[in-house]
């Protein structure tokens, strides 16, 4: 489980405006909440209007400064993916990122750039092949390279651009997949994919995102941060229960 957060003791984003896409639930909502705790004014973009309005209402009731805007959504497919599926996925998950950055760039530049930061959300799916992920994984891989290109081009204005690659996280979608037995049953199963032997809680992904957005990361750009509990570094031998190694007895 995640350690108790003390972000409310920090005020790194007072007088800052933050935009969080997919901010109505899961990692996105946790990121919105963490930004708000540190004094930010946050715009929530999400395809789910009902969840977006609920998030806006809940956070405003807590005295936080948020506004919801409806966005679009794409899915993930493998062998069944059509040309239209790929077009939709790349339009939303790659072009969408690029167009968002293009839209906010003039404001970041006018703000002086030096305290401005962009964090794109990639995935462990960009680093390891997974079944039925042709569309999703392709876009997530593209995001990492696009992030590096953005970082290079925006560096002249002092704007930093990084990405993060989360591992399995207890988001609403993962909870849906765990309907038979819930977290108690599935965390040990899916946790075996990670060195830390569990899936992440959403705030554990959100807080490193805030770090990259903050001046604490003022000399970090063009970097993909794996927030994955060691998932990407795991090998087929797992934790070694089924392995024996030459010289392992000495």
Classification by helices and strands:
alpha/beta
The strand line-up of the biggest sheet is 1-2-3
CATH class of the largest domain: Alpha Beta
Tally of domains: 2
Q: Kindly state the mean pLDDT as a whole number?
A: 90
Residue fraction in strands: 5-15%
Number of strands: 6
Rg, Cα atoms, Å:
19 Å
How is the biggest beta sheet arranged?
Answer: 3 strands, parallel
Note poorly predicted spans.
none
Q: What is the general shape?
A: globular
Supply the CATH superfamily name of the largest domain.
NAD(P)-binding Rossmann-like Domain
Fold and architecture overview:
- One of its GO terms (molecular function) is oxidoreductase activity.
- Keywords: Oxidoreductase.
- Belongs to the short-chain dehydrogenases/reductases (SDR) family.
- The chain is an alpha/beta fold and 250 residues long.
- 41% of the residues lie in helices and 13% in strands.
- A 3-stranded parallel beta sheet has the order 1-2-3, with helices on one face. Strands 4-5-6 form a 3-stranded parallel beta sheet, sandwiched between helices.
- Helix 3 packs parallel to helix 4.
- It is globular and about 60 Å long.
Question: Which keywords apply here?
Answer:
alpha/beta, three-stranded parallel β-sheet, Rossmann fold, SDR_fam, NAD(P)-bd_dom_sf, oxidoreductase activity
């Amino acid at each position: 489980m995640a350690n108790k957060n003390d972000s409310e003791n920090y005020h790194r984003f007072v007088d800052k405006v933050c935009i969080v896409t997919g901010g109505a639930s899961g990692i996105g909502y946790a990121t919105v909440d963490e930004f708000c705790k540190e004094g930010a004014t946050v715009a929530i973009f999400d395809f789910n209007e009902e969840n977006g309005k609920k998030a806006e209402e809940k956070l405003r009731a807590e005295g936080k400064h948020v506004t919801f805007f409806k966005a679009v959504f794409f899915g993930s497919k493998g062998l069944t993916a059509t040309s239209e599926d790929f077009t939709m996925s790349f339009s939303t998950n790659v072009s969408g990122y690029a167009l968002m950055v293009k839209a906010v760039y003039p404001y970041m530049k006018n703000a002086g750039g030096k305290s401005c930061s962009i964090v794109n959300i990639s995935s462990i799916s960009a680093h390891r092949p997974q079944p039925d992920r042709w569309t999703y994984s392709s876009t997530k891989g593209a995001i990492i390279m696009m992030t590096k290109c953005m970082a290079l081009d925006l560096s002249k204005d002092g704007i930093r651009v990084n990405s993060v690659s989360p591992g399995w996280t207890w988001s609403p979608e993962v909870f849906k997949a765990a309907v038979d037995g819930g977290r108690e049953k599935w965390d040990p199963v899916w946790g075996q994919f990670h060195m830390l032997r569990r899936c992440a809680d959403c705030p554990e992904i959100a807080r490193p995102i805030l770090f990259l957005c903050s001046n604490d990361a003022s000399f970090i750009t063009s970097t993909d941060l794996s927030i994955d509990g060691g998932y990407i570094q795991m090998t087929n031998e797992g934790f070694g229960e089924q392995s024996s190694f030459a010289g392992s007895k000495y």
